[in-house]
Amino acid sequence: MAQQLAFRVNEHGFLTGLCLGHLTYGVDGDDILIYTDAVRYSLRELPCEKQGDTFVYRVEGARFTLYYVPVEGASFVNRVVSMRFSRKTQLLRVEQPLQKAGERFLYHTFYNASAAVFERKGKLGICRGFANPFVTLEDDQMAYAPSLILETGQWYTSDANFIGIYKLTGEMIRPETPHMPMRMNGRDHSRYRNPSEGIALDFAEIRNFNDYTADYLDIKNKKFTFTSYNFFSNLPQRPETAEHLEAYHRHVAAFGKLTGDTLIFNPLCPNKIPNADPDSYWELFPEGSTAEELLIHARENNLRVGMYTGTAGNGLYGNATMIPYANNPTWKKIDVMGNVSGENCICDEGFLQWYVGVQKNTIKKYGLHVWDWDPGPGNGMFCYSDQHEHLPGKGAYKGFRNSIRIMAALKEEFPELYYQGFHGNKEYGVWGFRYIDQHEAYWENEPYVMTHVSRDLSVDRMTANGARQQCQWDYYFRFLPPAMNHGLAHRMAQVCDLCETNLDKIFDYTGWKFALLCAIASGGPVTVPVLPDDPERIDGYIPFYNKWIAWAREHFEYSKHTIPFGSQTGCGGVEGYAKIMNNEGYLFLVNDMPVPLAIDIPLNERIGMEQTDRHFALCMIHPFTDAPDVTYAFGETTSVIVPPYEVLVYHLCDPADSEAIDHAVTNALPRALEVVSPKQGKACASFVMSEEIEEMLQWGKSQLSDENDEVIEIYKRALKRNNVCWTRPDRLWAWVLFEDADQVENVCLLVNGKSITMEVEKIVSRTLRQFDAKTVYFADITDHVFVGEEAQLQVNWEGEQDAPFIYLHYPKADTEAMPQKAWTLPKRMYAAPVQDNSIRVRAAKLNSDNIMLQETENTITAFVDIPAQELEGVYVSTPVSIGDTGNDLKHDMALEYDEQDGTWKKTFRSGKRIHLIVDDDKLAVWAVTKDGRETPALHVPFTWILD
Fold first, then answer.
1. Which residue in 332, 570, 589 sits closest to 454, CA to CA?
2. 464 vs 576, 719, 762, 892, CA distance in Å?
3. CA distance linking residue 824 with residue 192, whole number of Å
4. How many CB atoms lie within 10 A of CB 9?
5. What is the C-alpha to C-alpha distance for residues 498 and 612, in angstroms, rounded to an integer?
6. Which residues contact 860 (CB under 8 A, 6 or more apart)?
7. Considering only Cβ atoms within 10 Å of each terminal Cβ, which end of the chain, N or C, has fewer?
């Protein structure tokens, strides 16, 4: 069990010290400062009366209370301050002074929302903050600005003021970005950088703050769900024909055979939004419609039903607060020019009550189990009204508080309601995910087309790679528990309007097991966008799914303790995911590379174990069961070799509980081929075409549907993919994998001296419109090799790349023996620049006045105190918009240097606000030097002119 933090409080209610085991931290000068439009209050200077566990401070015109709440199972304590005033009051600032510290920084997550202040004193770490996304750190003052208008006698209760201590480990972690399809200034970039990526975090800071956020997010009450998510499926978004209905019925039948429990529909028809009547609702399943028929059909098949209700998909109107529901002037935002907008301000109490009410009406009318917002529940940004309990132009904080109130109110009415979170929740960083059950990380880096350039062609595995990368980043740098992660299985692409009903008739025969196990490994819930039309046709599919979905349900409590270790995704090593409770649990080891690799497993606190004198067994339970004779003591490290493109699962247990071997193990077959005599532009390898390989290809042939070839052509045309290896298990494929396929040309494969036609797969993103990035060269060599004979392969190429990997792609039996030798790969990654506080972006502005209009040209200008020739680039974050914004606002932007005036600039076109899926009232501007140093981000406040 985790140690419980002990804390000391003086007679005035303020902290004097913290103790955690042998760790102690003395607190000097603790105080809470309250700034209003009339008075500044220092609570430690006010008379104090202790009433039970609450400290009460009274002064003429005001009353304050303070109490402490330990965080169960975490090394933190919460402190809550409440206040009320005897006159109408503007609450401007809540501040906590901090004692001097040698190393202290504020860490931001997502769209520049603050998370926590970290301090380091030797081996002691301290983490503190207020549980809201608006905390600032200036000198030795930690504060936030509520900007609220409090009526006479109205209570205001602060967000939790937390503090915790822990022992630092010395293991420093920051984002490692592998080869990406998006490049700026010659460097690989993720779609959005982590805002504080330049600051390395100690693993203890990550783990302990995750323990705190798990409590804040109430992770102990999260439940497992196996979800079919139709937004990214091939199902028609507005089903109307018999063919469309048949496609849905096939999907529901397949999902039922896999013991699925929850079906999330994208809007099945143009939905009617509620009017001003408090009894109104969103008309999602009109009486007598195809949509209603499908709702009934899902219920008849014992599925819980939910809705994706955002604006990003099927039509303009979802449930965003910016939709002009009714012409009620008191609800509306007023912009800086005094224009009354069609957008509604979530800070208006009248709108809030109506908004909650019509959502309750909708959920109750259709018996919905899943609900969501895309954008998030709403905000009060850019509103200059003086009637909404926020100061004019300062509604962001109140909007955050009310968005949480909305989610709490619906959960109170419907305790079993399940929330799926989207980009809009990320406006508020980790703090915006309170009450969210599962969040879709998809848009951070699209798993299929915007994560790393996988050395792979399996669509299921490539999707899984992207989902795992996001899970790792969420844990390490967003502080979100993996049990809330969007565990994706099967293929997924950002094409929500494809409507190719036959695409479920082709299948990734080699990647589906990998994908399902990755979903369970890196998350908790499992989500499938696409399922095979006839799962019974696929050998072993239903039993495997039913076994592992049952396992995931039964072991969901373990997923609440998931800790990633090993390599970061796509960086040339094996990833580990530990799920340990009370020194017992499971390890998932994932190798997404084309060669066997080893991973060191530290049997200690790094994977969630606790000090003990007991010994342990490490027993493989997938792909076959194996109970080795070796036992381990706490603190030892063991190494495991993981085959290429494989997930191994081990049970960490008492030796007496180890499982017996129940599978015969077959011989290893050639897959990753040793390259011999490599020269620049030439590499050779060989293998023997055995009867066992031929048997696997014959098995693959038995799996194919009659429509396979026809549907492959539809797939290639619709999704602009060359690769079909994953759907042709009857063929033997040779993959040629370079470090960077974009850097080579004229790649040629010879088999036994005969030239074979090669193809190359490219990443093509329809929505982000990035340049094509080459991934893997491949060729079908089935007809050029013969059983019992050695095949000689030679690869020729032009370019400065080293010898490629050569991998044979064909079906694999679960019983195939583990490799005995691990390969060593150079680490394939870009480490984030290191933040250097001595260099700065001096100033920046948006247009001439920091005002943005919809559908207009805008220019961001930055002034940097570093010579242009020393800079790799200057960048700016942007809110995410779908629709009219073109390429630039779909990701962080690179500015361009203007030699005439020595500034960095970028001109871009804004879109309509109705299309925004993330709103923000600031832009972040930062610069990176050629030697890998990064400036702190400069936040540029701006406002919109609203329609």
1. 570
2. 14, 18, 18, 24
3. 30
4. 19
5. 55
6. 844, 845, 846, 876, 893, 895, 905, 906, 908, 923, 925, 940
7. N
